[in-house]
Specification:
alpha+beta; Fumarylacetoacetate hydrolase, domain 2; 2 domains; metal-binding; metal ion binding
């Protein structure tokens, strides 16, 4: 089962629902994901069990699994591979080594709900960046009470060339049009037995040919997921919920860079697949600026 948002085939309204296999059923009595993520975990679990009539998933337009005042945040340098890659590319290597072992994790805001793209939509690379990579990440979904309610897939698109110049450029390396992609579905937390033992696979194709493929596991994540959520919520309120991407354990070698038209596919065991095609600059993402607080494009 996955929690999803989709456009009504009747009137185009965004509808929260439950996807099971090839069918989708609307949630009854819940009008948005923001409303759903305001509920305590026990009430949320009850709410997703109340659904209407099923309809075929084929032909529906699915939306990012976040709306209203929802936000996406990221944790950085949470895998040994990430620490090594950041140190390799950076002019200030020690900061990455220190944060990897520090008590306080690196956390940063990635995108508000309206900036998020979903499976099948393009992802972006900056026009002023010459070296860009995807970062496949397990994403933790928390309600407004700071409880973990589910998991999804995030592609934290990143400019290695900009961040490599100076770590203070991280906001520019991470926040840009099309820089944050989420899978369309959230797998409820009560259906995932061990989120710290999920395989993650990244495949990149160029002109129909596979140019990169690698697999890792969340077992290599050095932080505990509840600890990351606790640190995130300590100084912040998230009235409509938050999605926290937990860092990447896959980083291509320095001689690899994305180009326009590359197809990125991220698969996480038990969660599904996220696929996006690379586009350059702001123009391909003007549709995001029309997204309203209800999450309608």
């Amino acid at each position: 089962m996955h929690l999803v948002r989709y456009l009504s085939p009747v009137d185009g309204r965004p509808i929260p629902g439950v996807r099971t296999g090839d069918s989708v059923a609307p949630l009854e009595g819940v009008n948005s994901f923001a409303e759903l993520l305001r509920l305590p975990l026990a009430e949320l679990q009850t709410a997703v069990g109340k659904v209407g009539a099923e309809l075929p998933a084929a032909g529906l337009t699915f939306l990012p699994p976040l709306d209203g005042r929802g936000e996406v945040w990221c944790a950085g340098v949470t895998y040994e591979r990430s620490r090594g890659a950041r140190m390799e590319e950076s002019s200030e290597q020690s900061v990455y080594d220190k944060v990897y072992t520090a008590e306080r994790p690196e956390l940063f805001q990635k995108a508000p709900a309206w900036r998020v793209v979903v499976d099948g939509e393009p992802v972006g690379i900056r026009s002023d960046s010459g070296h860009d990579v995807p970062e496949p990440e397990l994403a933790v979904v928390a309600n407004s009470h700071g409880e973990i309610v589910g998991y999804t897939i995030c592609n934290d698109m990143s400019s290695r060339s900009i961040e490599g110049i100076n770590p203070l450029y991280v906001p520019q390396a991470k926040l840009f049009a099309g820089g944050c992609a989420l899978a369309s579905g959230i797998r409820p937390a009560w259906e995932v037995e061990d989120p710290k033992n999920l395989g993650i696979e990244l495949v990149i194709e160029r002109d129909g040919t596979e140019v990169f493929a690698e697999r890792t596991s969340t077992a290599k994540l050095v932080r505990q997921l509840p600890d990351l959520i606790d640190v995130l919520f300590l100084p912040n309120d998230f009235p409509d919920g938050v999605i926290l991407a937990t860092g990447t354990g896959i980083v291509p070698d320095l001689d690899f860079a994305l180009t326009e038209g590359d197809v990125i596919t991220i698969t996480i065991d038990e969660l599904g697949t996220l696929t996006n095609t690379v586009a350059t600059g702001r123009a391909p993402f003007t549709f995001l600026a029309t997204t309203n607080l209800e999450g309608t494009r």
